Amino acid sequence: MARVGLEIEFFASAEQLEATGAVNGTAIDCSVFKEIAAVLSVTAAAGTAPTLNVKFQVSNDNAIWADLGVAFTETAVVSTEHKGLTNFGKWVRAVALVGSGAANGVFTFSVTGRGKMSP
């Protein structure tokens, strides 16, 4: 029987991101998890046509990173989205980027998750 593990925080609650390029979230050792239920929660969006893109990356050594192939849908508004992560190896992090040339775009958001462990 599987059991639910610890809460995971890739980007802390109320993280603020301006249009300054990609920002890496906290790298988490997820080797004890079989699956992760991840949540992007955008609580504020401001600026002229900004967009927020958040994807996941994985690493075996916490040094060399590769895209996992899982990303939240690009958003420009207050929203919440859920994604399931599997086959991620040891280290996982979220990467966020304000896009669409929005030099004055600002988002307040968090990326959290809950890991599911094998027995």
Q: Any overview of this molecule?
A:
By secondary structure, this protein is an all-beta fold. It has a single domain, classed as Jelly Rolls (Sandwich). The protein has strands spanning 3-18, 23-24, 28-29, 33-46, 51-59, 66-71, 79-85, 91-99, 106-117. Strands 2, 3, 5, 6 and 8 form a 5-stranded antiparallel beta sheet that branches.
Taken from the alpha-carbon principal axes, the silhouette is globular
CATH top level is Mainly Beta
CATH architecture: Sandwich
The proportion of residues forming helix, as a percent range, comes to under 10%
Count of spatially separate domains? 1
Span between termini: 6 Å
- DSSP E strands, number: 9
H/E element sequence: EEEEEEEEE
Radius of gyration: 14 Å
Explain the layout of strands and helices.
Elements: E1 3-18, E2 23-24, E3 28-29, E4 33-46, E5 51-59, E6 66-71, E7 79-85, E8 91-99, E9 106-117
Antiparallel strand pairs: 1-9, 2-8, 3-8, 4-7, 4-9, 5-6, 5-8
Brief write-up:
It contains no helices and nine strands.
Which tags fit this structure?
119 residues; mainly beta; Jelly Rolls; five-stranded antiparallel beta sheet; four-stranded antiparallel beta sheet; globular
